Predict the 3D structure of the following.
Amino acid sequence: MGDEKKTTVRAAERALDILLCFVDQSELGMMEIASKTGLNKSTVFRLLATLEAKGFVKRDPRTDKYELGFRIWELSASLNRSDDPAVLLLPEMERLRDELDETVSLYVRDGLERVRIQAVESRQAIRRVAPVGARMPLSVGASSKVLVAYGDRELLRAVLTDPDWPETVDKDAFRAQLEKIREDGFALSVEEREEGTAAVAVPVFSRGGKLVAALTVSGPVLRMNEPTMISFVPAMKLTAERMGRMLRDE
């Protein structure tokens, strides 16, 4: 009985791994899924057949590729939208984008990574674009530094001792940056994570003072120099304050 339970859990994990392959791509072939998950082709074939029968994926017979099915959207429709910050805060993000005309993103922390849960793209022809759901380390980037600066000491210790800490980032300089962020209430980054891009981020706190997310404005360095980013901060802080009044503590 114990082995049967383990097998069932393992099969569920593999099926979920397949579904998570669609975070970055809307269509995938069976071999692409096998490569992403590390599963053999026969296992992927069986799991896809089950997921397709239940409506979680569907196959396009013209391309022989898979995409998410209607059951996923039915599940997402059942989310409590009133408490989902990605939905609740979207109008404020759109307002900020219209004011600053640069891409606005919302990041939350998940372990030692930050996740982009919402974004409103700039309307300018040249703009920085990262997919919703993208995961990035907490060691680089304006959003990461905000999330760590306003986190607890245990988080800072975990980030600094992470085996994946980049060798190019000085830990003492990182600590000094966090102190300045807490003093100033915002963080800047210029080509820290990606060449040619810059970003400025501020914290978003709930009504009870709990850190919820990092609100970020990003774009190409040719438009977003340091004085420009600093000029964005007052509008970003006002937006973050309005957002905070909309968020209740759990």
Remarks:
- The two ends are 38 Å apart (CA to CA).
